[in-house]
Design a protein that fits this description.
This protein has two helices and four strands. By secondary structure, the protein is of the alpha+beta class. This is 4Fe-4S ferredoxin.
């Protein structure tokens, strides 16, 4: 399951540097998460770092990109070359 930043985002800039996969970037109005790069921090951390630092709790599971832990692990391995 890739994550999604909702329109409650206040553009505080704390999530982007926390993403180990570089999946978060500034969109037209708010930050966005690239589902092709988001592993919910599987392979890096026990929990998604963007969610843990977000001061307004605007990061949710993206219902259009549901993946199992195994799929997220496989994506991590592909992205990291492992």
């Amino acid at each position: 399951m890739a994550l999604l930043i909702t329109d409650e985002c206040i553009n505080c800039d704390v999530c982007e540097p926390e993403c180990p996969n570089g999946a978060i970037s500034q969109g037209d109005e708010i930050y966005i998460i690239d589902p092709a790069l988001c592993t919910e921090c599987v392979g890096h951390y026990d929990e998604p770092q963007c969610i843990s630092v977000c001061p307004v709790d605007c990061i949710i599971v993206n219902p259009e990109h549901t993946e199992s832990k195994e799929q997220l692990q496989a994506k991590y391995e592909k992205l990291s070359g492992k």
